[in-house]
Amino acid sequence: MKTVELKHTYDASPERLWALATDFGALKRVMRGFVTFRDLPTGRTYTGQKFDVQVSLFGMLPWQPYHMEIIACDDASMVLRSSERGAGVTSWRHTLSVTKTDTGGSCLTDHIEIEAGILTFAFAKWARFMYAGRHKPRKALLASGAF
Q1: Can you give the pTM of this predicted structure?
Q2: What are phi and psi of 65, to 5 degrees?
Q3: Can you tell me the distance from the alpha carbon of 22 to that of 124, in angstroms, rounded to the nearest whole number?
Q4: CB of 96 within 8 A of CB of 79?
Q5: 8, 25, 44, 127: which is deepest, by most CB within 10 A?
Q6: Average pLDDT over residues 83-91
Q7: What residue ranges define each of the domains in the chain, with the CATH number in brackets?
């Protein structure tokens, strides 16, 4: 198993960032260029939600089945935990949390535990690249006033 953790700060309230981070439409937008989804739900995540999607890396590679389960989506503590698998990954456990910063903005922390057999190291590198790539589109969505 390999663990990846990233932190990004935003000039937005924790509530706005949390709303963006838990919205499936926003997920599709911040993942553009990295992963394309088929059958992704609409609206917001909620505890107990389970669904199967198809994913395509870069929107060009063959579609792969991927299963996602929302273990917890706690609006009060602004913590989202998911358990995922598919597309070569045995286990992808993601915890996303949003906290207030001392400057009045917010910090989003992604903590991902990945198991993919001999490819675990490669998937961990991919996770670091992909989650870092979400920062700029999130900032743009927040600046646009969409959230």
Answers
A1: 0.95
A2: -70, 145
A3: 22
A4: yes
A5: 127
A6: 97
A7: 2-144 (3.30.530.20)
Whether the CB-CB separation of 87 and 64 falls below 8 Å is answered with yes
The span from the CA of 96 to the CA of 39, in Å, is 22
Which residues lie across from 66 on neighbouring strands? 53, 86
Q: Which residue has the tokens 């926003």?
A: 26
Q: Which amino acid is at 76?
A: A
Looking at this protein, which amino acid is placed at residue 73? C
Sign of CA dihedral 54, 46, 74, 136: positive
* Three-state secondary structure readout of the chain: CEEEEEEEEECCCHHHHHHHHCEHHHHHHHCCCCEEEECCCCCECCCCCEEEEEEEECCCCCCEEEEEEEEEEECCCCEEEEEEEECCEEEEEEEEEEEECCCCCEEEEEEEEEECHHHHHHHHHHHHHHHHHCHHHHHHHHHHCCC
Question: pLDDT-based confidence at 135, cuts 50/70/90?
Answer: very high
